[in-house]
Write a structure and sequence with these properties.
Elements (H helix, E strand, L loop, with lengths): L15 H4 L18 H5 L6 E9 L3 H8 L7 H15 L2 H8 L5 E4 L13 H9 L5 E2 L3 E2 L14 E2 L8 E9 L3 H12 L4 E11 L4 H12 L21
Parallel strand pairs: 1-7, 2-3, 2-6, 6-7
Antiparallel strand pairs: 4-5
Helix pairs in contact: 3-4
Bound molecules: zinc ion (2 copies).
One zinc ion binds next to loops.
Length: 243
Amino acid sequence: MTGPLPDYYRAAVVPGQLRASLCELCRTPTGDQYRFCFKCHDSFARPNAAGFACYAIGGDQSGTDMRRYKAFPPGAQALDNIRLLLEHCVNHLGCAGRLVGAGIDAVAVVPSRTHYAPGAPSPLQFLCTRILPRYLRRIDLRPAPGSTSDRRVHTDAFTAPECRDLSHVLVVDDTWASGATMLSAVTTIQARGAQFTSTLALARWLNPQYSLTHELIVNVERVDDWKKPEQACPFTLDGTCPT
Ligand SMILES: [Zn+2]
Ligand SMILES: [Zn+2]
């Protein structure tokens, strides 16, 4: 990383005693000892590994940055912070490969469904073009005509070319909120034949208006145990790089 992230950034890692209540995939509190939240459990497909660079909290500066980096014009500081998060994750792409048992050989960046224009990269796609390693093949993931974000996982929200010759595709998006977009994208990539998929969301969105989420945030703050994104591996629940 070229500079430190501001102190308001928190890794998507909570202390050990609180981890058992999280969805093993999307790291949101499930309220019970369920392995997955309802959305991840019911999805048509799930990634083989999931990475998150940070938690972005609604109403907090970390949440605001996720919107400001892609505003017109973009917030310069927000854009710099998003770049730092992405650079941190790039250093851990090998960790996703180790978890899955196959190195990442291609990447699909989730396109905007509200501002999609063919041939015009989104702010995230632009950053990924500059920062992700060039040896990764780019998968042209596109929103299917008429597809909108309705917080549900669909089998036909996106289109993608054939992926049968690919062993491990990384799907990248800026924010995982309901998870519907990312899980729909994974569903498409798997249906196109990729052997393994991983996801990378720069931020796992936490909405403190949900009581379980509010409780989680309060509990971490009570023990004053947020980690900084730089201190954590994005791809593991405990933030330790897999060996
Ligand atoms: Zn989940
Ligand atoms: Zn790692």
